[in-house]
Predict the structure.
Amino acid sequence: MSRVRNLRVRPDLLYVASGWSTLVTDVRGRITGADPQGFFARNTRVLSAEHITIDGREPVPFSTANVQGHAQLSYAELGDGEALPSRAAYLLTERFLGEGLRTRLTVVSYAAQPLRCAGDRRRRLRGHQRGRDGSPPAGRRRRRGLGPR
């Protein structure tokens, strides 16, 4: 029997993978910028942080689950604290992995009157960083014949 070495259990992280794509989030489904969180394509981190606000406030996440190993669904509450379910608003964050990462944000409101809100999403992208194992990025190409960038 072979021995397993350098195994680290990380109960504070969720992993979703499909092919060469891997998503690492905290247990609330957030990508906060802390290592090793992010989206990795071919062993290269291309997304290191994501910050979502609705009407200038951060949603309060309360549940996240992986779905069939290649998707993730998160729920977050919008608003200032406790609200009756008939007046509450929620943010659903759906992430799908394949050749890349696709994120769908949906605001759900059970209020009798229409909800109006403005959202903002900021992402910190990393280009041409080394992979988690120190290897150079895969698929890096130079532009030819197009002049300076």
Observations:
- The longest strand covers residues 44-54.
- The chain has a mean pLDDT of 79.
